[in-house]
Specification:
This protein is mostly helical. It has 23 helices and 2 strands. Helices cover 65% and strands 2% of the residues. The longest helix is centred in the C-terminal third of the chain and has 30 residues. Belongs to the phytoene/squalene synthase family.
C-alpha cells in the first residue's frame, strides 16, 4: 500500500489503520526459524524448509495462521495442507485427462508411503503444480510424523480422493467439467473437498493432545466448519471458475432464475437475475454459521482456537463484502487488508467471534432488497446468527478482566440501554432476597434445634399440644406455707440455742 492508500484508509476506516499499526508493532508472531523452535518446526531440515516455502507459495492467508499453532502441530497441519493442496491441484487441472486423473485421485493416499514419488504432468499454467513436481519433499516429512498423525492424514486423503474422483467421473466429452445439480450434491461435493478437511483437523487436534479427545468425534460440526469456508469461496470465485470452465454453483440454484448454463451468470445483461442467484448462494452458506460457532465453543487451546476462528470470521466478512456486490461477476472481490488484520487481532475468544458473526449478519440483512425472492429466508438466517450470539453472550453484560491474574468478572454494562438490564436486576434482587430469607430461616432452625426458642410447628394438633404444655408450665403452684413455717421455726430454735450457749459460757467460765 502506498502513502495515498494509507491516507485514504485513515479517513474512511481509521479503526483498520490502527489495527494495521498495532499488528505491525505489537503482534507476537512465531518465528519458525528460531533455534528454540527447530525441534517443533523442522526448519533445520532441507525437506521441511521446502515445505514451509511451498506453504507460502500456495496460501499466504493459511500460512500465517498455521505458523501460530503450538509446538509440532504447526508442522503437522502444514504437511496436511500441502498433501490436500497437491490432491486438489490434480482435481482442478483441466489439462490432465480423466484416464490419468481418476486413478491418481483414488490412489493418491498410497503416494504418501511411496518415497521419491512426484507428478510432472500438470499443465504449465497450473499455479500450484510445484507441490506435485516436488512432492517427494512432502513425502519425506510425512514419513517421520507420528503414526497417529499419519493415520488421520492418510484416511482423509483416501476419502477425499475417492470423492473427487466420483465427481470428476461425471464429466462427459460434451461437458468436460461436471456440474453440481442438487443442493444435496453440492453439500456432498463440499464435504469431499472441505468438510473432510474439518474432520481431519479435528482428528489432528485430538491426536496432538492439545484438544480433548472427543473433538475428533464432532463430525457434523467439523463438516459445517469446512462447508462454511468452501461455500464462501465458491460463491466469491464465480467469475474465475466460469473463465476456467469449472462449475460449482449448484444448478438447483441458478436454474431458478432462468439461466440455462453457469456461464450465463456472468453476462452483463443478466446482472439482476445473477444477483438473486448469488444471494441464494449466500443464504445456503449462512446455514452453517451457527454450527461453526458451536464448534468454536468446544476448543480449549488458544492457538487452535485462533487457527479455526480467523478463517471462519473472514468467511463471514467475505459473504458480507460480496453480498449485493455486482463486482463478483467481473472479478475477484476480497476483504481489505486492514479488515483482515482487525479480524486476526479480535478473533481470540468465542464471545468476540460471536459478535463479529452477528455484526456481519446484520450488515447482510441491511442490504437485502425488498424484492429479493429470498428476502424473508435471508432475514431469518441472519436472525439465527444474532439469536445464537445473544443466547450465549448477552450484549447487555460486560466482561472485565480480573485483577492480578484473577478470573474475569461478568456484570451489567452500565452504559447499556437494553430493556433486559432492568429485568436482570430485578431477578438479581429477587435472588438475593431469597438467599437472605434462606439464611435467616437456617439460623432460626439452629436455635430451635438447641431449644433456645420455640419450635416451628406446621401441624395444628402438634401446635395445640405444645400450647397446652406451655400453659401447664406457666400455671402458679400452691404456696408451701407449712414448709416455710418449719424452716422459720427451725431457724428460731437454732438462733435461740446459740444465744443460750453463749450466755452459759459467759456466766460459768468468764467469772473464773
Amino acid at each position: 500500500m502506498g502513502v495515498a492508500e494509507y491516507l485514504t484508509l485513515a479517513v474512511t476506516h481509521p479503526g483498520e489503520l490502527r489495527s494495521m499499526i498495532s499488528y505491525k508493532v505489537w503482534a507476537d508472531k512465531r518465528d519458525i526459524t528460531d533455534a528454540t523452535e527447530l525441534q517443533y518446526t523442522g526448519y533445520d531440515r532441507d525437506t521441511m524448509k521446502k515445505c514451509w516455502e511451498f506453504l507460502d507459495l500456495t496460501s499466504r492467508s493459511f500460512a500465517m495462521v498455521i505458523r501460530e499453532l503450538e509446538g509440532d502441530l504447526a508442522r503437522v497441519v502444514c504437511l496436511f495442507y500441502l498433501v490436500l493442496r497437491a490432491l486438489d491441484t490434480v482435481e482442478d487441472d483441466m489439462t490432465v485427462p480423466n484416464d490419468v486423473k481418476l486413478p491418481l485421485l483414488r490412489a493418491f493416499h498410497e503416494k504418501l508411503y511411496e518415497p521419491g514419488w512426484t507428478f510432472s504432468q500438470s499443465g504449465p499454467n497450473e499455479k500450484d503444480r510445484i507441490v506435485l513436481v516436488e512432492f517427494d519433499n512432502i513425502q519425506k516429512e510425512f514419513a517421520i510424523l507420528d503414526k497417529g498423525y499419519q493415520e488421520v492424514i492418510a484416511n482423509v486423503t483416501r476419502r477425499m480422493g475417492a470423492g473427487m474422483a466420483d465427481y470428476a467421473a461425471l464429466a462427459t466429452p460434451e461437458r468436460p467439467v461436471a456440474e453440481v445439480d442438487s443442493i444435496a450434491d453440492y453439500d456432498l461435493y463440499c464435504h469431499y473437498v472441505a468438510g473432510l478437511v474439518g474432520e481431519g483437523l479435528s482428528g489432528l487436534f485430538a491426536a496432538s493432545g492439545k484438544e480433548r479427545s472427543f473433538i475428533a468425534d464432532q463430525l457434523t460440526l467439523s463438516n459445517s466448519m469446512g462447508l462454511l469456508l468452501q461455500k464462501t469461496n465458491i460463491y466469491r470465485d464465480i467469475k474465475e471458475d466460469v473463465d476456467e470452465g469449472r462449475g460449482f454453483w449448484p444448478k438447483a440454484i441458478w436454474s431458478k432464475y432462468g439461466f440455462k448454463s453457469q456461464e450465463e451468470i456472468c453476462e452483463p445483461a443478466r446482472v439482476k437475475d445473477a444477483q438473486w442467484a448469488a444471494n441464494n448462494m449466500v443464504l445456503d452458506a449462512l446455514r452453517h454459521a451457527t454450527d461453526a460457532l458451536d464448534y468454536l465453543t468446544l476448543l480449549k487451546n488458544q492457538s487452535v482456537f485462533n487457527f479455526v476462528a480467523i478463517p471462519a470470521v473472514m468467511a463471514m466478512a467475505t459473504l458480507d463484502v460480496c453480498f449485493m456486490n455486482p463486482k463478483i461477476f467481473t472479478g475477484n472481490v476480497k476483504i481489505r487488508k486492514g479488515q483482515a488484520l482487525q479480524i486476526i487481532m479480535r478473533s481470540s475468544n468465542p464471545r468476540d467471534v460471536a459478535y463479529m458473526f452477528r455484526d456481519y449478519a446484520r450488515s447482510i440483512h441491511r442490504k437485502v432488497p425488498m424484492d429479493d425472492p429470498n428476502m424473508l429466508k435471508i432475514s431469518i438466517s441472519c436472525a439465527r446468527v444474532e439469536k445464537w450470539a445473544e443466547h450465549h453472550y448477552p450484549s447487555f453484560l460486560e466482561v472485565k478482566a480480573g485483577a492480578n491474574g484473577a478470573a474475569a468478572q461478568t456484570g451489567i454494562d452500565p452504559m447499556s440501554t437494553d430493556a433486559r438490564s432492568g429485568l436482570y436486576m430485578e431477578l438479581v434482587k429477587a435472588n438475593r432476597a431469597k438467599q437472605d430469607a434462606e439464611r435467616r430461616e437456617k439460623f432460626m432452625d439452629d436455635l430451635r434445634a438447641k431449644g433456645l426458642i420455640r419450635p416451628k410447628l406446621d401441624d395444628p394438633e402438634e401446635e395445640k399440644a405444645f400450647q397446652e404444655k406451655m400453659s401447664k408450665l406457666n400455671e402458679p403452684e400452691d404456696f408451701p406455707i407449712k414448709l416455710i413455717l418449719g424452716i422459720v421455726l427451725g431457724l428460731l430454735v437454732l438462733f435461740g440455742g446459740s444465744i443460750w450457749a453463749l450466755v452459759y459460757v459467759a456466766t460459768n467460765y468468764l467469772d473464773n
